[in-house]
Design brief:
This protein is of the alpha/beta class and about 190 residues long. The chain contains four helices and eight strands.
Length: about 190
């Protein structure tokens, strides 16, 4: 005799709830999240903001004291500090150890202090670079020009010098073609 299939309530089996095994996913998250967070910290890049110099030459007679520029002309053998532009304050010759950043910082601090005493708030400086100046030298010059470390109430803080830095090409040194004496003897 053939069995009849039972259709009804009793014939359905009791369905078991499916088990979710998320341990492998949790293990992945436990490892992945800290690694991604550490990568975010290590991948922070410090961006140095630069301002481009103005186009065209300004008439030097009409330049206000606040508009005068601090220029650092960086050559392979020296750093010359000009303030206002065109007037040499100090020239620092390269030593055997390289550029003298501490002496440069002292000159910049003196200029900043002089400006503060005259109630002039100057934050801009222009680095005029010769070709083939190494990148690390440029970054070190920018850091030196931007700020210096000072002790304030038993803690070391970064004091501001000239944080708004512009870059440009150094003027070409033109050797004098003829002096006045040689012109007089040629006549």
């Amino acid at each position: 005799m053939a069995r009849r299939a039972k259709f009804g309530r009793g014939s359905r089996g009791i369905k078991k709830d499916a088990e979710l095994d998320i341990t492998s996913f949790m293990n992945l998250m436990i490892v992945l999240v800290p690694v991604l967070l550490m990568m975010m910290v290590f991948s922070r890049i410090t961006v140095l903001e630069l301002a481009l110099p103005q186009l065209g030459e300004a008439n030097e007679q009409n330049i206000d004291v606040k508009d005068q520029r601090l220029e650092l002309v960086v050559r392979a053998d020296s750093i010359a500090v000009y303030y206002p532009q065109g007037y040499l304050v100090k020239e620092l010759v390269v030593t055997e150890q390289g550029y003298d950043y501490l002496a440069l910082q002292m000159v910049l601090r003196q200029i900043k202090q002089t400006l503060i005493n005259k109630n002039i708030d100057k934050k801009a400086a222009t680095l005029l670079l010769e070709e083939d100046i190494p990148y690390q030298v440029i970054v070190a010059l920018m850091d030196t020009t931007r700020s210096y470390q000072d002790v304030l109430i038993a803690s070391v803080v970064d004091a501001e010098l000239f944080p708004e830095i512009s870059l440009g090409d150094a003027p070409i040194d033109i050797a004098p073609v003829a002096s006045n004496e040689s012109l007089g003897s040629a006549k």
